[in-house]
Design a protein that fits this description.
Strand content: 5-15%
Oligomer: single chain
Structural class: mainly alpha
Number of domains: 3
Strand order of the largest sheet: 1-2-3
Number of strands: 8
Order of helices and strands: EEEHHHHHEEHHHHEEEHHHHHHH
Number of helices: 16
Shape: globular
Largest sheet: 3 strands, antiparallel
CATH architecture of the largest domain: Orthogonal Bundle
Length: 351
């Protein structure tokens, strides 16, 4: 007997769990963030518990079925619903392209199909929201966007290989684009810009201040709970990686600001539990800068994290310490943020 139960977290996120009894033993497992993917995952779980792991190739899994199974698999990793929808849309876009060239089965797809698709994709016109109404209200996909899509396709086809739907990952031979923009130093707000943002922040003041004084990712900050704090120490699981950061000290200034929110219990930023309000917070920051400046420097809520790293490096914080505050598993990730040294520091080493 198997059933699906719905559970809402303190952050307002709905999780689906499967409850199944096999041979007198009860199993309960997280299935995903949507009911549809939960049903698929429960079917997979029930089959595996009763008969062992399926041999995918013997099922003759279709392209569409493989995508649905992959979607259920991704949901189990805790990926947001919005991100899952985007990944699914790009994988389906390639499926539709293959259908046009009469390759409707997974095993019919070749590396040439992959190359031709990504080449066509790189020449597509997409709406440029920063130049609406202008003569050229479109742009080509950025190299970073194309590289993300290559990553999605590789991940999907590797899933098919791992589940014996295919013998080889045809996307493994497709290299990513060299993206020079990714080598630029990450933009960080100046003192003047920070004052401008905080002066205009309104109801988002405490949220922006938390981002600035902790360096937390916005997604982790949205999910902060009163129980995340023990005195002035913060411990949370990171939504992006699943890794925990433990006992990170919080500045006194911020603790004073958040004290009433912590005492109230529940979500620290209850006003930011909807996508609409989160979007408003982002647009408020972006609206303080010229649109071209926002695009060229990728200004968003994550820029507070870069700013935090820049400030701490300027204060002389070692990279290994900054790594702990940012919750990076690898020091190489921290070095992406730490690829900057102030002019005054450089001048010390020049006669």
């Amino acid at each position: 007997m198997a059933s699906i139960t719905k559970y809402m977290t303190k952050a307002g996120i709905i999780h689906y769990y499967g409850d199944i009894v096999v041979n007198g033993k009860r199993f309960r497992k997280y299935l995903g963030l949507s009911k549809r993917t939960a049903k698929l995952a429960l079917q997979e779980l029930e089959y595996e518990l009763r008969y062992g792991k399926k041999d995918g190739r013997s099922e003759n899994v279709t392209y569409k079925e493989a995508i649905l199974k992959f979607k259920a698999h991704v949901a189990l990793t805790g990926t947001s619903v919005a991100q899952i929808k985007y990944i699914e849309s790009r994988i389906n876009a390639f499926r539709k392209y293959c259908s046009k060239v009469r390759h409707n089965k997974l095993e019919e797809i070749t590396p040439d199909d992959c190359r031709q698709y990504i080449t066509r994709r790189s020449h597509e016109h997409i709406t440029n929201f920063y130049k609406l109404g202008s003569e050229k209200g479109w742009k080509h996909p950025a190299k970073s966007t194309l590289n993300r899509e290559i990553g999605f396709q590789k991940r999907f086809f590797q899933f098919c290989v791992d589940n014996d739907y295919l013998e080889n990952n045809v996307w493994s031979r497709i290299p990513k684009f060299r993206d020079k923009s990714a080598q630029k130093p990450r933009y960080a707000f100046s003192d003047h810009e920070l004052k401008m943002i905080l002066d205009a922040s309104g109801k988002f003041h405490d949220f922006f201040l938390t981002l600035l004084l902790t360096g937390l990712r916005p997604t982790d900050t949205f999910a902060l709970q009163a129980t995340s704090f023990s005195g002035n120490m913060l411990s949370i699981p990171q939504r992006k990686t699943g890794e925990w950061i433990y006992n990170i000290p919080i500045p006194t200034e911020l603790m004073n600001t958040l004290s009433k929110r912590i005492e109230s219990g529940g979500a620290i930023f209850s006003e930011l539990q909807s996508d609409r309000q989160r979007r408003k917070a982002r647009l408020l920051v972006q609206g303080l800068f010229p649109s071209n400046f926002v695009r060229d420097n990728n200004i968003n809520l994550h820029t507070f994290r870069h700013t935090y790293a820049r400030i701490k490096l300027k204060e002389g914080m070692p990279k290994e310490v900054l790594q702990s505050f940012l919750g990076h598993k690898s020091i190489r990730t921290t070095e992406i943020y730490a690829n900057w040294v102030s002019t005054s520091e450089l001048s010390k080493w020049v006669e």
